[in-house]
Every structure is written in structure tokens, then in C-alpha cells.
Amino acid sequence: FPSHDRTAVENGIESETPSTANTGKPNTAKSNAVAVNVLPPETKIAPKLPTNVYKPINVTVALVVNQIGKINDAAGTFTANLDLRLKWRNPDQAFDPKVIGSNEQILIGEEATARLAKIWQPKVTFQNLADKPREQELQLIVSANGDVTYLQRLTGTFQTSYKLNDFPFDEQILPIALVTKYDREIVNFWQDQEDIDFSRVGTDFSIAGWHIGKMNFILDQFKGLDANFYSRIQGQIEVKRNPIGHIPGVFIPFFLVLLVPTIITLWVNSDLDKKIGAWSGSILTMVALSFTISVRYPTLSIESVFPQIIWLGFIFQFLGLTFNTTVMNPNLEKFFGGKYIVAEI
Known about the structure:
seven-stranded mixed beta sheet; 31% strand; disordered N terminus; alpha+beta
């Protein structure tokens, strides 16, 4: 977990530069994603900020990823089922446990929604949620001392930017970004050791074609349109692509396209026309293979592995065709040491 000066954070003077502790990787969440409320909306008359509490109010965050359903690098999305836990202090909600008969008030479903509409809440949203979440379940726990714990389970589709230059040997970061509508002077995200220990990625699921790694958290801040700074926290899930499902369909045809005309050129006794025809057919096949790859992997850039391999193939074909029309050409034998040059090669 990134080290922070807690005094600096509580006074809202933390650097704007995102922390990259644990991963060393930058924030990958898209800024144009649809922000969807985590907490239910308040009433039209918004409850007042909690009294007798130090500002900014620390909202601690814990996240459990139960399952990742689909990683779609073409659409720039992934689907995840997760449990979210938020905690904050609101002394206005404190009560006498002797009167209530319990140290905690536990509300589930509609009761929790109704209670949240009447009390102050930090207005937390998912910054990179692509659409409204599905299968929402929520629970609210109010402690006698005024501690409020919000628990939510949901399934949603999240946006991210995939970097595919190393495809199919790439590693990706799947971010789940949370922001608050209050600026840093009012609300600040935080994690203590208990939140870090609670957060995890489930081990009882798998994704076809991917290996699931650990989850790290990054705390940072961003500047809003009102020129104020807002707190943000990201849970970043590490995933690594399994290249086995992609290599055979590209590399086997690729090597065969280059191997066949090479064998005809060096080991088959045939005239020049047949050799030139073999290389011409190889070039056309390479063009078809390139088109197939571009259709199957439309998001790959020219810097990625597969397009670079195809270009190397075209260079090899150009050299092979040039070699046949010069050194292996009977009409040009005298320029390359006579008729014995072909036999020596």
C-alpha cells in the first residue's frame, strides 16, 4: 500500500501526482466513463455535514473481487462482480445502546436505502463504470459511536485502456476507480491495515485465456471543472494473457508460407518460372494472413508483435524473390560466377 503522510492527507495537501506504490504502473481508467452512484441518492434537502468531526472526513475503502466475467480488449471493457465496503464517522448518528438494545443497527435492502436517504453520505461513485450496475445488494451498519459502514455487492461493466503492444505476451491492469463528489477539503479516501487485509481477488474462478494476479490500490487526486481537487482511489487487478491460444493460429501459417517457397528454391530442381510462381503465391498468402489477423485482432497497433512479424515475413519474401531473379536466374549466371554458382548454393 502506498505510503502517505496521514497529517498531510488529513489537511488536504497531498501531492496531485498519483502514487504508484505496489505496482509502479499508472492510472489506466478512462476519464470519459459513465459515473454511476454507489450510494443511493439523498433526499432533495441534503442532510448537513456531520458535526463534531474533523475535516476532511476520512472514508475508508475495502474491495473484494468475487469474479471477473469477461475481458474485452476490443471494446476496452471488463465485467466484474465485487463487494464494496465504505466506512466513515458521523457523530450525528450516534445512539444510546441501552435504548436500542444493541451496539449496532443493521439495515438491509430497502431499509438501508431509506436510511441513507435521510443521513449524510460521502456521495461515492464508480468513475469508470460503463453502465448501471446489475444485481445490487446493500447493507448499512450504524454503530453506537456514530461509525457508519456501507456494504454493497454488484456486477458491472467497467472501462479501461488496454495496452496491446506486447500482445499476445501482454499484462494488463483492470482498474476499479472510486471518486467522491465532495472535494478534498470535505472528504478524503483512506485505507487502514484492516481494509488492506479485507481486500482481495477471489481464487475460486478463472478466465479463459488469462491468468489472474493480485490487486493493488492507488490513492491519488484529480482537479475538477470547478478547480477544486477531489480524492480518488483505484483497485487495480493484475491479469496476464495466456498466449497459447493465439500463437498457433498465426505463427504456424506464417512459417509455412515462408518455408514452402524456400524449399522449392533451394532443393527442388525446377525452372525459374515455377520458383517465381512459388514466391508470388507466398506473397499473396502472406497478404491474406495479414488481412485475417487485422480482422481477428482489430485493436492491434503497428507496434505490436503480430504486425511486426508479418512485416518481417514480407521482407524475407522480397529477399527471396530478389535472390531468384538474380543469382538463381540462368540468364544472369555470368554476373555471379557462372553456371556452378547455383550448384554450390
